[in-house]
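Reviewer comment 2.1 asked that we show a complete input and output for one of the modelled complexes. We chose the phenylalanine case, as it is the one discussed in the main text.
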Amino acid sequence: MTNRGNFSGRLGFILAAAGSAVGLGNIWRFPYLAGQNGGAAFLLIYLLCIFLLCFPVMVGEIAIGRKVGSDAYGSYYKLGGRSWGFLGLFGILAGIFILSFYNVVAGWAFGYFLEISFGDLLNHPDFGGFFGAYVNDISDNLWFSLGFMVFTALIVSQGVQKGIEAANKIMMPSLYLILIGLIIYSLTLPNAMAGVKFYLIPELSEIKAQTVFDALRQAFFSLSLGMGALITYGSYVKKDQNVVSSAAVISIADTSVAFFSGLMIFPLVFSAGQSPTEGPPLVFMILPQIFHDMGPIIGRVVGGSFFLLLCFAALTSTVSLLEVPAAYLVDQKKLPRKGVVWGLALLIFIIGLPSMVSQGMVPFLNKLPFYQGRDFLTFVSDMCDISLTIGGGLMCVFITYKWKIENMNEELSLGNDTYMGSILQKYINFTIQYVCPLLLGILSILVIIDKFFGIDKVFG
Ligand code: PHE
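Response of the prediction step:
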């Protein structure tokens, strides 16, 4: 086999996989979904999803990747034949579409970082208006998201160890440091405790079908599951490493960043007397107002740090998203990595253009008639979310009926002497065989109904 590269060791893999998981999903999407779904009630369901559904799926994905040592398509193909190979292709395609819109939002974060740190965004009289104008400024959008894609491609083109692992080893610790600094600051603000209460004391009556749907798709998205990112990263893991404990550390790292982002944002929002239910613009419209109120210097430093944090988080995720199709072309088509990476980056940037102009520039894309009048970026993002839960559910079916659970267990016991016979083994086996396929199947169908028709209208 040609040398595909691998992670230097346990830490390199864990940081890279946690880097993939920690992203805009944690810092931008998790807080606004929690804000819209009752705060603590959402957090509770979210944690349940991670524990019951996501952790076992993550273990399964990494096991498949490491077993075969190939890309998402190659791994399914080798263990399950051509028809299962399609599941890998489906994931690779999902990754391409996720990156296409993700890069647009990452471009906004990058632009905000520059405008707050070095420009005069914070002097603007109306942040809602600013954001509305900003996402409709085609030249800013083009440059910033192109810039972001170039950073991503630069890292991925350097390969697994020199590119992906090295970048994560710098960015992930910096991200934690910035986050901790921001939490300490926000907890010391007046009325911060109202935010903490909203976030930590659940109001069980707040739990609705929507809460469960949002928590589930968010958990899958946040842990980068269901589309082959962890199969691909798993394929670079050496056989003497403990997959189960690595998966546990990755899940905890990701969940803690989401948790801490909430702990940073809700005190800020409540202490400024703002509403947490703002939705996607929460981070872009509400936070700048708060940074503005901190005064010109502190606002610049705190606000700039926040958006830098968002950029780091996004970059370690875009890197993993680009690696999935890149690994496919390198492994299956034997194409050179550098050319593949730059070609894909350009292609995905172009696929992202309709999402970029869907925030108002092109009225049709802004209000899709077949999608309850929502915009194209939301459409692509929702479809990708659904494909993740379906992909995760099918992976469990694949392990149960095709690859067989005993073979997975055998792979998992490499580098983990105590795995066989442990409670953890029983838990993982039970959830992968029964709980995940069933729950993921039912919930994916309900989410599709909800997205296209509105669940209340159908069952209400
Ligand atoms: N997990 C990333 C986030 O939370 C997004 C992502 C999804 C990355 C799927 C890779 C694969 O932002």
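The mean pLDDT is 94. We note this here for comparison with the apo prediction described in Section 3.2.
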